[in-house]
Amino acid sequence: MTVHANAFYGQIETGRRSAPLQMRETSWGYIVAEKTSGSDDGHHAEAILRVLAVFMLFSSILPWVYFGGDLANNTIAAKLALSSGFFVIGVAAYLHAGRGFKNEIQIDSERREFRLATRNSRNIASVRRTIKMNNIDSCFLKRSTRRHATSQMFLRLRGRAQPIAIAAGSERELRPMLERIAYVVRH
Protein backbone atom coordinates (compact mmCIF):
# COMPACT_ATOMS: atom_id res chain seq x y z
CA MET A 1 0.00 0.00 0.00
CA THR A 2 1.15 3.51 -0.65
CA VAL A 3 0.12 6.18 1.83
CA HIS A 4 -0.15 9.72 0.44
CA ALA A 5 0.44 11.98 3.42
CA ASN A 6 0.39 15.29 1.65
CA ALA A 7 -3.11 14.68 0.24
CA PHE A 8 -2.82 17.06 -2.68
CA TYR A 9 -2.96 14.49 -5.47
CA GLY A 10 -5.89 14.46 -7.86
CA GLN A 11 -6.03 11.10 -9.58
CA ILE A 12 -3.11 8.86 -8.67
CA GLU A 13 -1.97 5.81 -10.59
CA THR A 14 1.10 4.37 -8.94
CA GLY A 15 3.49 2.39 -11.07
CA ARG A 16 5.62 0.98 -8.29
CA ARG A 17 4.83 -2.15 -6.37
CA SER A 18 3.23 -1.20 -3.09
CA ALA A 19 4.49 -2.35 0.29
CA PRO A 20 2.27 -4.37 2.64
CA LEU A 21 -0.07 -2.52 4.96
CA GLN A 22 0.60 -2.18 8.67
CA MET A 23 -2.05 -1.07 11.18
CA ARG A 24 -0.79 -0.29 14.69
CA GLU A 25 -3.13 0.22 17.62
CA THR A 26 -2.40 3.17 19.91
CA SER A 27 -4.03 4.48 23.07
CA TRP A 28 -5.89 7.12 21.06
CA GLY A 29 -6.71 5.20 17.88
CA TYR A 30 -4.49 3.61 15.26
CA ILE A 31 -1.79 4.36 12.70
CA VAL A 32 -1.75 3.06 9.13
CA ALA A 33 1.61 2.95 7.33
CA GLU A 34 3.67 0.84 4.97
CA LYS A 35 5.70 -1.96 6.51
CA THR A 36 9.38 -1.33 6.07
CA SER A 37 12.27 -3.71 6.29
CA GLY A 38 15.56 -2.63 7.89
CA SER A 39 16.92 -0.04 5.50
CA ASP A 40 14.45 2.25 3.84
CA ASP A 41 14.97 4.69 0.97
CA GLY A 42 13.37 7.43 3.06
CA HIS A 43 15.96 6.96 5.80
CA HIS A 44 18.78 7.15 3.27
CA ALA A 45 17.37 10.32 1.70
CA GLU A 46 16.95 11.83 5.15
CA ALA A 47 20.58 11.06 6.07
CA ILE A 48 21.93 12.46 2.80
CA LEU A 49 19.88 15.64 3.17
CA ARG A 50 21.11 16.10 6.74
CA VAL A 51 24.75 15.72 5.67
CA LEU A 52 24.25 18.25 2.86
CA ALA A 53 22.57 20.62 5.32
CA VAL A 54 25.51 20.39 7.72
CA PHE A 55 27.89 21.15 4.83
CA MET A 56 25.79 24.21 3.98
CA LEU A 57 25.94 25.37 7.60
CA PHE A 58 29.73 25.03 7.63
CA SER A 59 29.86 26.82 4.28
CA SER A 60 28.26 29.86 5.86
CA ILE A 61 31.61 30.48 7.60
CA LEU A 62 33.63 30.38 4.36
CA PRO A 63 33.11 34.00 3.23
CA TRP A 64 34.65 35.20 6.50
CA VAL A 65 37.76 33.01 6.32
CA TYR A 66 38.36 33.13 2.55
CA PHE A 67 40.77 35.95 1.81
CA GLY A 68 41.95 35.06 -1.69
CA GLY A 69 40.35 36.20 -4.92
CA ASP A 70 37.94 38.98 -5.56
CA LEU A 71 34.82 38.34 -3.50
CA ALA A 72 33.02 41.48 -4.66
CA ASN A 73 35.94 43.52 -3.33
CA ASN A 74 35.65 41.72 0.03
CA THR A 75 32.84 43.94 1.27
CA ILE A 76 30.95 43.21 4.45
CA ALA A 77 27.63 43.25 2.58
CA ALA A 78 28.78 40.52 0.16
CA LYS A 79 30.07 38.38 3.02
CA LEU A 80 26.84 38.82 4.97
CA ALA A 81 24.75 37.95 1.92
CA LEU A 82 26.71 34.76 1.20
CA SER A 83 26.83 33.76 4.86
CA SER A 84 23.15 34.28 5.46
CA GLY A 85 22.24 32.50 2.20
CA PHE A 86 24.26 29.40 3.08
CA PHE A 87 22.97 29.47 6.66
CA VAL A 88 19.28 29.79 5.75
CA ILE A 89 19.49 27.05 3.11
CA GLY A 90 21.35 24.76 5.55
CA VAL A 91 18.83 25.26 8.35
CA ALA A 92 15.87 24.79 5.98
CA ALA A 93 17.34 21.57 4.55
CA TYR A 94 18.10 20.20 8.02
CA LEU A 95 14.60 20.97 9.28
CA HIS A 96 13.03 19.46 6.16
CA ALA A 97 15.07 16.27 6.62
CA GLY A 98 13.93 16.09 10.25
CA ARG A 99 10.29 15.85 9.19
CA GLY A 100 10.91 12.45 7.63
CA PHE A 101 9.79 10.85 4.41
CA LYS A 102 7.72 7.84 5.53
CA ASN A 103 4.04 8.69 5.09
CA GLU A 104 1.37 7.51 7.51
CA ILE A 105 -2.27 8.06 8.37
CA GLN A 106 -3.28 8.56 12.00
CA ILE A 107 -6.91 7.98 12.92
CA ASP A 108 -7.58 9.48 16.35
CA SER A 109 -10.92 8.27 17.69
CA GLU A 110 -10.58 10.22 20.96
CA ARG A 111 -10.15 13.66 19.38
CA ARG A 112 -12.15 12.58 16.32
CA GLU A 113 -9.35 13.60 13.94
CA PHE A 114 -7.87 12.16 10.79
CA ARG A 115 -4.19 13.15 10.51
CA LEU A 116 -1.84 12.84 7.55
CA ALA A 117 1.73 12.67 8.83
CA THR A 118 5.32 11.76 8.01
CA ARG A 119 7.68 9.79 10.26
CA ASN A 120 11.45 10.24 10.35
CA SER A 121 14.26 7.76 11.05
CA ARG A 122 14.13 8.57 14.78
CA ASN A 123 10.48 7.43 14.83
CA ILE A 124 9.11 10.94 15.40
CA ALA A 125 5.93 11.86 13.50
CA SER A 126 5.24 15.29 12.01
CA VAL A 127 1.60 16.04 11.27
CA ARG A 128 1.16 17.62 7.86
CA ARG A 129 -2.61 17.95 7.81
CA THR A 130 -5.42 17.44 10.32
CA ILE A 131 -9.00 16.80 9.25
CA LYS A 132 -11.85 16.72 11.78
CA MET A 133 -14.09 13.67 11.48
CA ASN A 134 -17.22 15.81 11.17
CA ASN A 135 -15.68 17.41 8.04
CA ILE A 136 -15.43 14.02 6.33
CA ASP A 137 -18.43 13.36 4.12
CA SER A 138 -17.41 9.89 2.93
CA CYS A 139 -14.53 7.52 2.41
CA PHE A 140 -14.51 5.29 -0.66
CA LEU A 141 -12.37 3.00 -2.80
CA LYS A 142 -11.81 3.55 -6.49
CA ARG A 143 -11.06 0.29 -8.20
CA SER A 144 -8.59 0.37 -11.04
CA THR A 145 -9.86 -0.36 -14.52
CA ARG A 146 -6.54 -1.96 -15.50
CA ARG A 147 -5.59 -5.47 -14.56
CA HIS A 148 -3.05 -5.82 -11.69
CA ALA A 149 -3.14 -2.08 -11.02
CA THR A 150 -3.62 -0.61 -7.57
CA SER A 151 -6.90 0.58 -6.11
CA GLN A 152 -7.10 3.98 -4.47
CA MET A 153 -8.77 5.22 -1.29
CA PHE A 154 -10.27 8.70 -1.22
CA LEU A 155 -11.80 10.99 1.38
CA ARG A 156 -14.59 13.29 0.32
CA LEU A 157 -14.72 16.40 2.51
CA ARG A 158 -17.76 18.58 3.11
CA GLY A 159 -17.79 21.68 0.94
CA ARG A 160 -15.12 20.35 -1.42
CA ALA A 161 -15.87 19.01 -4.87
CA GLN A 162 -12.63 17.10 -5.45
CA PRO A 163 -11.93 14.11 -3.15
CA ILE A 164 -8.51 13.67 -1.52
CA ALA A 165 -6.42 10.59 -2.35
CA ILE A 166 -5.06 9.17 0.90
CA ALA A 167 -3.78 5.70 -0.03
CA ALA A 168 -3.16 3.32 -2.91
CA GLY A 169 -2.75 -0.45 -2.80
CA SER A 170 -4.54 -3.71 -3.33
CA GLU A 171 -8.23 -3.79 -2.54
CA ARG A 172 -7.61 -6.66 -0.12
CA GLU A 173 -5.37 -4.37 1.97
CA LEU A 174 -7.48 -1.23 1.68
CA ARG A 175 -10.84 -2.82 2.55
CA PRO A 176 -10.16 -3.25 6.34
CA MET A 177 -8.83 0.29 6.52
CA LEU A 178 -11.93 1.61 4.75
CA GLU A 179 -14.23 -0.26 7.16
CA ARG A 180 -12.42 1.06 10.24
CA ILE A 181 -12.41 4.64 8.97
CA ALA A 182 -16.10 4.40 8.09
CA TYR A 183 -16.86 3.04 11.58
CA VAL A 184 -14.94 5.86 13.31
CA VAL A 185 -16.55 8.54 11.12
CA ARG A 186 -20.07 7.22 11.81
CA HIS A 187 -19.65 6.91 15.60
Keywords:
elongated; PH-domain like; alpha+beta; single chain; four-stranded antiparallel beta sheet; 187 residues; 2 domains; 4 helices
CATH superfamily of the largest domain: Pleckstrin-homology domain (PH domain)/Phosphotyrosine-binding domain (PTB)
CATH topology of the largest domain: PH-domain like
- Averaging pLDDT over every residue, what do you get? 80
| Outline type | elongated
Indicate the low-confidence ranges by residue numbers. Answer: 5-17
Give a description of the structure.
The protein has 187 residues and is an alpha+beta fold. It has 2 domains: 2-36 and 101-186, Pleckstrin-homology domain (PH domain)/Phosphotyrosine-binding domain (PTB) (PH-domain like, Roll); 44-98. The chain contains 4 helices and 9 strands. It has helices at 41-59, 62-65, 76-99, 171-186, and strands spanning 2-3, 21-25, 29-34, 102-108, 113-119, 125-132, 136-142, 151-157, 164-169. A 5-stranded antiparallel β-sheet has the order 2-3-4-5-6, covered by helices on one side. Strands 1-9-8-7 form a 4-stranded antiparallel β-sheet, with helices on one face. The longest helix is centred in the middle third of the chain and has 24 residues, at 76-99. The radius of gyration is 22 Å and the shape is elongated. Mean pLDDT is 80; it is low at 5-17.
